């Protein structure tokens, strides 16, 4: 079975995702969160017994959220799972 890192590497190796990811550069955090949410909502989700850990759309969004954490834009330990548990992106997009 592939490791989490291998699954992420495979998921992000996608030209359409890379183009979408590039389009987020220079956007505000709030806009990035909205764009990630839109990408997740419109994505073609594929699940197996591993749940969202095998879904390429979910892995892409989770990886980007974790990159925002590493960059100090989001609290440490945020993930797709915590965003879903906490009404997706409400905290970061409320004004």
Topology:
Layout: H1 4-12, H2 15-23, H3 29-42, H4 56-70, H5 80-85, H6 90-93
Helix pairs in contact: 1-4, 3-4
Uncertain segments: none
Distance between the termini: 43 Å
Structural class designation: mainly alpha
Please provide the ordered H/E string of secondary-structure elements. Answer: HHHHHH
Report on the biggest sheet: none
Give the helix tally: 6
**Tally of DSSP β-strands:** 0
Strand content: under 5%
Measured as a percent range, the helix fraction is 55-70%
Q: How many domains, as an integer?
A: 1
Overall description:
It is a single chain. The chain is mainly α and 95 residues long. The chain has one domain. Helices cover 60% and strands 0% of the residues. It has helices at 4-12, 15-23, 29-42, 56-70, 80-85, 90-93. Helix 1 (4-12) crosses helix 4 (56-70). The longest helix is centred in the middle third of the chain and has 15 residues, at 56-70. It starts with a helix and ends with a helix. The model has no long low-confidence stretch (mean pLDDT 87).
